[in-house]
Write a structure and sequence with these properties.
The complex is a heterodimer of chains A (about 160) and B (about 425). Chain A is built from three helices and seven strands; from the N terminus they run H-E-E-H-E-E-E-E-H-E. Chain A has about 160 residues and is α/β, with parallel strands linked by helices. By secondary structure, chain B is of the alpha+beta class. Classes of the chains: A alpha/beta (about 160), B alpha+beta (about 425).
Chain lengths: ~160, ~425
């Protein structure tokens, strides 16, 4: 089945903010409130059958002037139909999007990583703590306003004591 | 409660597990990662598109070629580039060799941890021969940086095919030997059979791919499901297991190596011939001498001269460049002869490598997935139209497996963690990035 994004737009018209299929990657941008509803539909509907949450990440649009600032990017994949769909959800600085942990177990770690590196909160996540960085780390390193050369050593000279 | 790791002799990388034990049985496990985080994604946003390629080597340090190729394909997708056919076949051959070396390492290390040291020595010795092949093509064993946006660094060296067949023949023998040492070895089978079982449902929910998913009986392979490069032209099987235990994962990996050999052999039959380098009547001089001469104003006849280069640049000559790289000037460097001998070539070179110029894909986003040795390896690249990637995201295959590792080890005994963890083939480089 092709043009998944257009069919989805027809079905969830009012929740859809935009669609495109640049470079053949079918993409749909949706409102955060509709995320769980649409994700569940994608997973359970026989025509979509997106049983894999392949990837979850986010992009900081600070330098591109995005408003809201972030976009959380989901890549879904269907084992049965071998098709992929990208779903994007806008998120404000300090804002949150619904967690998909109830639908896919892997969302747990992916969302933790997203929180850790970009500081996006996921509502309903059971254990939203840092995963790649250490607990004492201040800030979110993948944000565009986090300087590349900033160091936060835990031990040794220059260590920050709390 | 017991703390395993972060630094533990039976852990392949640095990872920590906090396990709750009841006697010898694991009640629950908490996996902690991040000890090898070195900000790959952040670093990628600082440099040009071509400068990210060496970073991708360090993601999976057992099969770096697949990472290289995966990243380049994502950037090519942004460009909408078509890669020359010969370069595509070269990529397939090098990917499959990497896959074999990765599987060899995984099987060898996990067998060693269960006491089968002989297998480790045999397999690692064989891996060394594959590394030598890789070295011959790329100039390095590990930090290869061989793929380029639009193609590969250079053509395969002369006589490579014959050597490759020889290594494949030897590796097959070693595999047969190791198969005899392990597959029907009661000590080994008792340690891995019905150990570390994961159900299909859990594996899908955790987004596991690669040999881990296939061991549960699902024949998902990116090479077959969404073919890239020229994988749709080969006849190969996708080995699957049935119970999803460590034994199945071992068997799947062993079978996959044979399938990789089949792909390489077919690729050599189908690969379009490279350009035969002929010594022309022109005088052969060193590239740097050409430049020096040109600086002194001795430009007469310089265009007809062909230059020889440092071995690291070999294989990217004017005559064969069209077969190994795209001719799109926005993405690829010109042949070295042109860089050294005429101003257009030099400018083209300058525009692709200098800061503030560089390779610039049009603004947009692309996700490209390849089948890494551990599963789906995806690169999501966002471009804002400048010479620096706006965002590079890797979907590391072992991240999802590690996320579900507690499911795999729960209910087994403490000693079985070693077997289960060995079969994950955790690669710290791509897990923590």
């Amino acid at each position: 089945m092709q043009e998944l994004h257009l069919k989805l737009k027809e079905k969830f018209g009012e929740d859809v903010l935009g669609v495109h299929d640049q470079h053949g990657d079918e993409t749909i941008v949706i409102k955060p409130a509709a995320l769980i509803k649409i994700a569940q539909f994608l997973r359970d509907d026989a025509d979509y059958d997106m049983n894999f949450l392949m990837d979850l990440t986010a992009v900081d649009g600070l330098k591109l002037g995005w408003n809201p600032r972030f976009q959380v990017v989901y890549h879904f994949f269907s084992l049965k139909h071998s098709h992929r769909l990208r779903v994007k959800v806008p998120a404000a600085d300090g804002g949150s999007v619904p967690s998909l942990t109830g639908l896919w177990a892997i969302a747990n770690w992916f969302e933790r990583e997203c929180w850790d590196l970009l500081g996006i909160k996921f509502d309903g996540h059971p254990n939203l703590k840092r995963i790649l960085m250490y607990e004492e780390f201040v800030g979110h390193p993948l944000r565009k306003d986090y300087p590349i050369n900033k160091r936060q050593p835990l031990i040794g000279p220059g260590a920050v004591r709390k | 409660m017991l703390n395993v790791g972060p630094s533990h002799p039976a852990m392949h990388g640095i990872v920590r597990m906090i396990v709750e034990l009841d006697g010898e049985t694991v009640q629950s496990a908490d996996v902690e990662i991040g000890y090898l985080h070195r900000a790959f994604e952040k670093d990628s946003e600082q440099f040009g598109y071509l400068q990210v390629i060496p970073y991708t080597d360090r993601l999976n340090y057992v099969s770096p070629l697949i990472n290289n190729i995966g990243y380049c394909m994502a950037v090519e997708k942004l460009f909408g580039l078509k890669v020359p056919e010969r370069a595509q076949y070269i990529r397939v051959i090098m990917s499959e060799l990497s896959r074999v070396s990765d599987h060899l390492t995984c099987v060898a290390a996990s067998a060693m941890e269960l006491g089968a040291f002989t297998v480790f020595l045999y397999m690692i010795k064989q891996r060394e021969e594959i590394y030598q092949l890789v070295e011959e093509v790329t100039g390095a064993r590990l930090t290869i940086s061989y793929a380029r946006v639009g193609g590969v660094k250079g053509d395969l060296p002369e006589g490579f095919e014959a050597k490759c067949h020889e290594v494949i023949k030897k590796t097959r023998e070693v595999l047969r030997e190791c198969d005899q040492l392990l597959t029907h070895n009661r000590i080994f089978v008792d340690r891995v059979k019905n150990v570390g079982i994961i159900s299909q449902k859990d594996a899908i929910s955790y987004g596991m791919t690669g040999p881990f998913l296939r061991s549960t009986g699902i024949d998902f392979d990116v090479r077959r499901a969404t073919p890239y490069l020229v994988y749709d032209r080969f006849d190969f099987e996708i080995p699957v297991g049935s119970t999803g235990d460590c034994l199945d994962r071992y068997l799947v990996r062993m079978d996959e190596m044979e399938q990789s050999f089949r792909i390489v052999e077919q690729a050599y039959k189908q690969i379009p011939a490279g350009h035969v380098l002929v010594n022309e009547q022109g005088e052969v001089v060193k590239g740097e001498d050409l430049v020096d001469a040109a600086k002194m104003g001795e430009t007469e006849g310089i265009v007809t001269k062909s230059a020889t280069f440092d071995p690291t640049l070999a294989g990217y000559h004017k005559d064969n460049r069209a077969e190994v790289g795209t001719c799109n000037k926005r993405a690829a460097m010109p042949p070295k002869e042109e860089t050294y001998s005429n101003i257009e070539g030099l400018m083209n070179h300058f525009k692709t490598v200098m800061v503030g110029h560089g390779t610039r894909p049009p603004a947009g986003e692309a996700y490209h997935a390849v089948e890494g040795a551990n599963g789906e390896l995806g690169f999501y690249v966002v471009s804002d139209g400048t010479g620096t990637p706006y965002r590079v995201r890797v979907r590391p295959p072992c991240f999802t497996i590690m996320a579900g590792l507690h499911k795999v080890v729960e209910g087994d005994s403490m000693a079985d963690i070693i077997a289960s963890f060995g079969s994950v083939n955790m690669i710290g480089g791509e897990l923590d990035r």
